[in-house]
Amino acid sequence: MNELARNIKRVAMVPAVGFAALCIYLGYWQVLRAPQLRADEHNSRAQDRLRSVEPGRLYDTDGELLLDVDPGPNGWRRSYPARRYACHLTGYNDRSGLQWSLRDAFAGVGAYEKPWAEFVEGPLHGNDVILTIDLDAQELATRLLRGRRGAVVALGAHTGAVLALVSAPSYDPEGILESKWDYQLFQEDPETPELNRALQGLYPPGSVLKMMTAAIALDLDRVKPDTTFECDGEYEIDGAVITCPKAHGELTLAEALAVSCNTTFARLGGYFAADEFVDYVRRFELLERAQMPLPSSQGQIGDFSGEDRDVLLAETAFGQGRTLVTPLAIARLTLAIANGGTVLEPYIVDNVRGPDGRVVASARAREAGRAVSAATAAAVAGMMVRVVEDGTGRIADLRGVDVAGKTGSAENPHGEPHSWFTAFAPASDPEVVVTVVVENAGTGAGAAAPIAREVMAHLLNRAGIR
Question: How many domains does the chain divide into?
Answer without folding.
Answer: 1
